[in-house]
Write a structure and sequence with these properties.
- It is a single chain.
- This protein is elongated.
- The longest helix has 21 residues.
- The chain is mainly α and about 150 residues long.
């Protein structure tokens, strides 16, 4: 299970703890409930930038974490830093974007929005605002709708 909420995960990871059984029947039913623990990755307590070995997973988990924290500018700054043994290359990303006309169109509209925001409100503020408003839209085209809030 993956938790990307703003606060730490506080629910038990034991399956049987998810059932609120009344005391009078708990003793009769508990032996019949499967007993296992589920794996949990709590992004509020995990640093993908240093804790993840797979480059692609590190990039996606870092995006999920910093998007939830409303720090997209920090994500893109982090992404711009050289990644050790990176499997992600700008030319490959460009080829992927231009190979899909719909995705290329969306990426270009995001770039245009970012440029307009930068010109209107100053580079730093415009980039931050533009990223927060435009990038989730572009990502939603590729990966599906993101929850609001």
């Amino acid at each position: 299970m993956l938790h990307q909420g703003p606060e730490r995960w506080r629910v038990s990871v034991s399956f049987e703890d998810l059932f609120d059984l009344p005391g009078e029947i708990a003793g009769d039913l508990l032996p019949w409930l499967p007993k296992f623990r589920y794996a949990l990755l709590d992004l509020s307590r995990y640093d993908p930038a240093s804790g993840e070995d797979d480059t692609r997973q590190r990039v996606v988990l870092q995006l999920m974490k910093l998007t939830r924290q409303r720090q997209l500018l920090a994500y893109f700054r982090w992404l711009a830093e050289p990644l050790p043994d990176s499997e992600l290359h700008a030319k490959e990303i460009y080829r992927s974007l231009t190979a899909d006309p719909e995705l290329e169109e969306q990426a270009m509209s995001v770039a245009e929005k970012l440029i307009a925001k930068c010109r209107a409100g100053g580079l730093e503020k415009g980039l931050q605002t533009g990223l927060q408003e435009s990038v989730p839209d572009a990502l939603a085209v590729r990966f599906g709708e993101f929850p609001k809030g």
